[in-house]
Each structure stands twice: as structure tokens, then as C-alpha cells.
Amino acid sequence: MKCRLRNLLAYLVLIIALLSPSAVAEAKKLIPMGESIGIQLELPFIYVAHDVLLPNGQWLKKGDMITEVNGKQVDSIEELKESFTEGEITLSIEKGSNQKRSITLTNEQANNILPFLKDETDGIGTLTFLDPESKEYGALGHQIIDGVLNRPPEFTDGSIFLASIEQIKKSSPGNPGYKISVINTDDIRLGDISSNDIYGIFGHWESDIKQNMRKPIEIMHDDEIQLGKAELLTAIEGSKVESFAIEIVKIEDNFLQFKITDEKLLSKTGGILQGMSGSPIIQKGKFVGAVTHMFVEQPDRGAAITLSEMLKKKPD
């Protein structure tokens, strides 16, 4: 009996030691961001961004891909320009895997179509978090879908840059608003893009972590999130990140719905805007999640993903 008691006491002492402050690892902390960013993905192909009527009566259709010039493979607009020669030029065009054709243009006609071609995807979004230890970041809270290709694009390189909000087009029921931003890609990029995943873009931060940046805070576990007051961090003027009051009105699995209650934000934006995806949500000093969508008919309401769920899709 005494032996059993000694074993039990030793087991309890072991548990207490494991649970003591010195033995418990510090909870993961991330910096909530909220800055507007310009996003640029470099693609391994050239595609047509708008329908173009050619002088011979043929059309280049939106989504067509230019794969070759005079039988030589081209992967970028720069390579395309270098392939132009005097006289006629034959372009190989693909639309899907089974639709292939060729068109012949003069050098002048080929130069005239350049403004309608793209070899990159770009857009505006919001930074969600920065890990001060690994210098990894996450943004958007959802995947980038190219509006012309209607799919997540393959990409060879990606960059994010700080964006400055110049003007706001307000949201109204049935009409999503948006941020009008200026992005200076001549500035040093903030980071690369290593993944365009279902829950956002992720990459490595390349800029300095400034002393005046917001401090790292703990991630709120999904079962700790409560209905009621919370705050949203985002930029609606210049590059300044501000805190706005919201109310969490529904929690379901790894997702939540919220309503904007901040009068300043409602007055300025009408609600959620395109470009706010990724804006951090904080409750009781802990990092809850990121904005992902707005309700088009009720722009003062939005949806978000919990941060713990977003981090599951982060690349290792």
C-alpha cells in the first residue's frame, strides 16, 4: 500500500512539475498587422487580358495564352518583345488544352496588342499577421483567383509592397465598395510570396521589424471566442492602421460572422470593402482571426476565419 502511495505521489509531483510556469512553453504570439498591401504574382505565361479585334478580322479573346512566336516558346512579355522581327510574325495561341491556333501579324500589329497582354496578376489586400521569430507573414485570409483566368494562377515569383489608400468607394447594399490605392513597386518589397493557399497568401518578411510596430499577442483558441464586442484593424486612409469596433454575432466551427458597429468606419466606407480581406480581428487582447468576405446585400456585415484555422494552411 505504501509503495502505491509513493508511486502516486511521485506521479503527482511529475505532473505539477510539467505544469509549472518554468516548464510550460510560452504560447505562440504573432503581431497583428492591418496594413494595406499591393500583391504581385509573376506568371510563367502570357495571357490576353481583354478581347482584341485584329486587322484581319480575327479575335484575340480574353484568357487566350500566347505560347510561341515563330515556333519559339515565350514565357514573358519581355521575351515576346525580343522575339519580334521585321516582317510577319506568327503567334501560337492556346485556350485550354484542346484549343490551339496560329495567327500572323505584322510587326506593327504585334506591337499594338502589347497593352492587352499580361504576364502577372496583381491586386490589393491586407496583411494579417507577422511572426517576429520566423519572419513569416500571412495575408488575405483567402486564395487569389485571377479574374481573367478564373482560377488560382501558377506563379514563378511573388512580392508584396506597402499600399497607400488615396480614396474610398463606399459600399452600399448590392454594390461592394473598394479601396483606391497607390502602390510604389520601386520601393523595397516587404516580402516574397511562397504560397497562394485556400486561406491566404504566405511568405517571408524581408523588411525591418520596426520598434514602433504593434506588439505580438497570443492567439485566441477557437473555443475561447465569444459573441460580442471585438475590434478590427485595417487602413482606410493613407497607410495608417486604425482600430474599429465590431460585434461578433455568430460562431460556427472555424468561422465567424460579425457586424461593424464603429460609426466612423461606417461613415467612411459604408461597411466592408474589397481590399479589407485579411484585416485582423482582436478580442480581449487576443488574436482571433482575419476578415475573408463581406455580405454584398448587407455590407456592414462580414465573415472571418479564425487564426488557428488560417495557420493550419500555412506552408511549413
Automatic annotation (TrEMBL):
> What residue stretch is flagged as signal peptide?
1-25
Superkingdom of source = Bacteria
Q: Does the keyword Magnesium apply?
A: no
- Domain Peptidase S55: where? 94-316
Q: Which UniProt keywords apply?
A: Signal
The family database entries (PROSITE patterns) matched by this protein are listed as: SPOIVB
What is the name attached to this protein's record? SpoIVB peptidase S55 domain-containing protein
